[in-house]
Design goal:
By secondary structure, this protein is of the alpha/beta class. It is built from 10 helices and 14 strands. It folds into 3 domains: 28-125, no CATH class; 139-227, Phage tail protein beta-alpha-beta fold (3-Layer(bab) Sandwich), CATH 3.55.50; 247-340, Phage tail protein beta-alpha-beta fold. It has helices spanning 43-54, 108-120, 135-144, 158-168, 177-185, 198-206, 247-250, 267-278, 286-291, 309-319; strands at 28-35, 63-64, 72-76, 83-90, 96-98, 101-103, 173-175, 212-217, 222-227, 257-266, 282-284, 299-308, 322-328, 334-340. The radius of gyration is 21 Å and the shape is globular.
Length: 341
């Protein structure tokens, strides 16, 4: 049975080994980028080939998705001779999806740093892979952050919602004073996080205040912080890209057909009706919406007829300068991330 690797098509670029610095030992990284048959001619694949070439990774070999392929890191050997076999996926949006997160074409420097950091570990256990976390630490943290919020958040003060979440966490959570002040000055929580995971919800709650969710590691424990974005831009994401390409299997009701006739209805009202039917939360990127002056009170229209909810949603969002991406929270629950075009 085929295991989906990440949304979309598959390319498996078998890249030769990275050579470490002169001081670094002989630990190496083998990178495979998997794609479904037919994507090899895609412009995104060609652009990634150039990126890998610019990073000094010649000899890229494309391989199609095979039964059992999964994203991840498999160390082989020990000490300086360790080899890290990394499997990634080129998704249908042209992004490289790895166990450390998603990299776009503009993230080549971050991709190189991640791979270099892996190399620099020299085969020692606990090599950082994402936000300074080893694979085991990442899995443990994601598991702890996968619990649902469990209470209604819409209309709450954001700082109160965060305090209530903090009370359910088994990890220490600190809030940077500057972010705390911004939260206190912000509007009440606009979205409903009740069923969503703690990690996704904390990351989304911090964003309107200019904050991000970051793990804090020490020798003895892992904690969490809501703080300003680091220089690298890395942070715990507001949801993860799905490993399955077919959105109809992730949010089936998005593809139910229905009569439609929207004429002069505020976008917010139309979106509320769609969210109620599809049974998937809508989370909004309010920072980008303010920046791009998106007004959900603007009237929208969808011509009378029959259509399916995904298409109706896209038409409503487009009229106010927005788009929707299907994402999964830390527990795998799907939601729609609404951001600007």
């Amino acid at each position: 049975m085929l295991r989906p690797l990440t949304a979309a098509c598959a390319i498996s670029l078998l890249l030769p080994l990275f050579t470490a610095s002169a001081q670094s030992a002989r630990s190496r990284v083998q990178l495979e980028v998997v794609f479904e048959p037919g994507l090899a001619t895609n412009a995104a694949a060609q652009k990634w080939t150039k990126v890998f070439g610019d990073l000094g990774l010649p000899g890229v070999r494309f391989r199609a998705l095979q039964n059992g392929d999964q994203m991840g890191i498999k160390p082989q050997g020990t000490g300086d001779a360790a080899i890290y076999q990394v499997t990634a996926l080129l998704n249908n949006r042209g992004a490289l999806v790895t166990s450390a997160g998603q990299f776009t074409l503009s993230d080549s420097a971050k991709l190189k740093k991640w791979l270099d950091d892996m190399q620099a570990g020299g085969g020692q256990p606990g090599v950082p892979t994402f936000l300074g976390l080893s694979p085991k630490q990442f899995d443990d943290l994601k598991r702890q952050l996968s619990a649902p919020v469990g209470f209604s958040t819409k209309g709450m003060r954001p700082e109160k919602a965060i305090e209530q979440i903090r009370a359910t966490l088994k990890l220490p959570l600190t809030v940077d004073p500057v972010i705390g002040q911004a939260l206190a000055a912000d509007d009440p929580v606009r979205d409903e996080f009740q069923d969503l995971s703690l990690g996704t919800s904390l990351a989304a709650l911090a964003r309107p205040a200019g904050g991000v969710l970051l793990p804090q590691t020490s020798r003895s424990a892992i904690g969490l912080a809501l703080t300003a974005p680091p220089a690298s831009g890395d942070a715990w994401p507001i949801g993860w890209p799905p490993e399955m390409k077919d959105e109809s299997k992730i949010v089936p009701k998005l593809f139910d057909f229905t009569p439609v006739d929207i004429d002069g209805v505020p976008a917010s009202r139309a979106l509320d009706a769609i969210a109620t039917y599809i049974k998937a939360p809508l989370l909004f990127d309010y920072n980008s919406m303010v920046k791009d002056r998106v007004d959900l009170k603007k009237s929208v229209k969808v011509a009378a007829g029959q259509s399916y909810y995904r298409r109706i949603l896209d038409r409503v969002l487009f009229q106010v300068g927005l788009k929707a991406d299907v994402r999964l929270d830390d527990s795998g629950l799907p939601f729609l991330w609404i951001t600007t075009l």
